Amino acid sequence: MKKILVLEDEPSIRSFVVINLRRSGYEPIEAATGEEAMERIRQHPDILVALLDVMLPDIDGFEVCRRIRATGSKMGIIMLSAKSQEMDKITGLMTGADDYVTKPFSPAELTARVDALYRRIGGDNVEDALSSGPFLLHLHSRTLDKNGEHIRLTQTEFTIMKLFMNNPGRALSREEILSAVWGEDYSGEVKIVDVNIRRLRIKIEDKPTEPEYITTVWGYGYKWGY
pLDDT tens-digit profile of 163-219? Predict the structure, then answer.
């Protein structure tokens, strides 16, 4: 059974989400507060995806996301919020989320986002590793080393790195990256690509403001420049 954490303090919304996820073959693990969510994760270490509401009665969803990532977890994370402000989206992604869904959302939209993230996490890899310069991307463990030192990646960051390292020196458009990483049916904004690239640069570049590996192709997209 595919376990998924549903952190939402509004019982009616949580029930709505849980019912639709069950219909799609998932086993929802419910939580109403941030602290309760962290306890559920400890009780169910096989949870692979989490839906985190931003506005909560105790610690907010951003803090829950930070705590999950601080453990080294590669769990897929989707933020849920009634707010549509750009800064909320960027905050959620920069704290380690893989995707962001704004309320109100349709059951089909949410399930599609969850399905896409699950596919990225559970995809089978034929090759053992990809190497480029100081980087070694381990495809089975879905981890990255730079000069022998481990770099923590989210599932989305791993997928972006794999795309770049499979296409060295090739300029990839934002739309191409969006389709390859988030799926052809993704209905969110292309800006999610830029935010994830910025976050990835912070992790892998010696000087994130002067990127050596992920270079910008102005007006088009990005290129793995090593």
Answer: 999 999 999 999 999 999 998 888 888 999 999 999 999 999 999 999 999 999 999
Using CA atoms of 188, 61, 28, 49 in order, give the dihedral in degrees to the nearest 10: 60
Single out the residue of 189, 224, 225, 196 nearest to residue 77, CA to CA.
196
Q: State the Cα–Cα distance between residues 16 and 23, nearest whole angstrom.
A: 11
User: How would you classify residue 154: left for phi > 0, otherwise alpha for psi between -120 and 50, otherwise beta?
Assistant: beta
pLDDT of 1-14, one tens digit each? 689 999 999 999 99
Rounded distance between C-alpha atoms, residue 51 and residue 68, angstroms: 12
Q: What is the pTM of this model?
A: 0.65
| Spatial CB neighbours of 205, under 8 Å, sequence gap ≥ 6 | 211, 212, 213, 214
**How far, in Å, CA of 187 to CA of 46, rounded?**
28
**7, 50 Cβ separation under 8 angstroms:** yes
